[in-house]
Amino acid sequence: MSIVRPLLRAFAASSFLVLMPLAAHAADPADVAGRLKDVFSKQGIALDWTGVSGDASSMTLAGVTAGPVGGPGEEKRRANIGDVTLKGVSEQGNDYIVESVSLPSYTVEQPGGRLDMTSISISGLHLPPPDSTDPMDSVMMYDKAQIGEVSVKHEGKQVFDLTNFHVDVTRPQGDAPLKFNGAADGFKADLSGTRDPKAKEAIKALGYENIEGSFLMAGSWTPKTGESSLDTYKLTINNAGTLDISMKMGGLTPEFIRSMQAIRKKIAEAPKDQKNMQAMAMLGLFQQLSFDSFSIRFDDDSVTGKIMDYLAAEEGMQRSDIANQAKAVLPFALAKLHNPDLTAQVTQAVSKFLDDPKNLAIVATPPNPVPVAMIAASAMSAPQQLPETLGMKVVANQ
To answer: What phi, psi does 221 have (nearest 5°)?
Structure first.
């Protein structure tokens, strides 16, 4: 469905207003608007509007558009947001605090497709001054952001629907970490329109033409140390399974973020023949990051058995035959890694999972943080050593 890509691109552009990462004197609407524009520009987002009206109790930015900061041609990638209302604007020191932000219901139509978002709101939007030295001001802050519903239609048929997506952020006090969590009450997707005949046949046979599920995430960031943690990024599809990802990294300091923002701005403004040079500077910056741990886990809820039954029916075999075939082929498929220990470990874990599908996980926990630069170098020169470097393990049914 080629229509999905431009629709999602428009959704992403508009979502910059919602996913922006608090009382007080009256604030000048024009000054607040200018502050908003400056803050978003530092995040790589260009905001524009046709007019500003109202006062500190309620001000409106008319005809707002949003898109990436860049040179000529970027205007084609802008999303028309519409009128945005800011209520309860006050000053706290040199900062502006916006009690609530409301966006209009948002619709994008492309030939054959339509994207709708409703009940878009933000509370506790924090707008620091342009010259702020507060480490936390390197990221956008808010208390809560919410989208009531996201709906995608293709040729008049609804193919995706998500309800009550929300993100909550707790600003740190002292040396405490920033904490965030988000979730969606539920989503639905219609996969019956898949164009690939083989995939469509398999989806129908497995009973996944219409799927439902939920999503949640949580994590933290400690500006003083640069430690960041994605504690969970969990996607559940009912009657199929749950994928849960977690990760910890170091080096993500406010200074790193500010440097990355500066390089990103240079990339956007650089002539086409110089963009690669700036991109290399960004790669060099990533050498400041370190890898602490990573985990990706799948908890089965019947999808594994359904897939094996489907493949068995296609080949005129039993489920156990399909499992045994996979066990036999896996060591040969992994031989190219030239890591016998990892091959044996993966084969044992996958075999255990296929015999009794409960859960399967890849876990990487090195004894000490590993510089990202070392990981990149190892991946190019000696990839077979990466599992040992990262302390990688593959386990099943734990």
So the answer is: -150, 130
Using DSSP's 3-state secondary structure scheme, residue 22 falls into: coil
Helix, strand or coil, per DSSP, at residue 398: coil
Residues 6 or more apart whose CB falls under 8 angstroms from that of 19 comprise 145, 167
Beta bridge partners of 232: 218
Residues in Cβ contact with 124 at an 8 Å cutoff, skipping those fewer than 6 apart: 22, 97, 98, 99, 141, 142, 143, 144
Q: Are 161 and 42 in contact (CB under 8 A)?
A: no
Contact 242, 216 (CB under 8 A): no
DSSP codes joined into one string, 368-381: S-EEHHHHHHHHHH
Cβ(283)–Cβ(275) under 8 Å?
A: no
User: 305-334, pLDDT tens digit by residue?
Assistant: 999 999 999 999 999 999 999 999 999 988
Residue in 364, 353, 339 with CA at minimum distance from that of residue 398: 353
Low-confidence ranges of the chain (pLDDT < 70): 1-26, 70-77, 135, 278
- Rounded Cα distance between 376 and 348, Å, is 28
Handedness of CA 394, 179, 120, 41 (dihedral sign): negative
Give strand pairing partners of 298: 243, 360
Cα gap 195→121, rounded to integer Å? 36
pLDDT, tens digit, for every residue of 40-90?
Answer: 887 778 899 999 999 988 999 999 998 887 654 555 568 888 999 999 998
| Number of other CB atoms surrounding residue 160 within 10 Å | 18
- What is the C-alpha separation between 398 and 394, in angstroms, rounded? 11
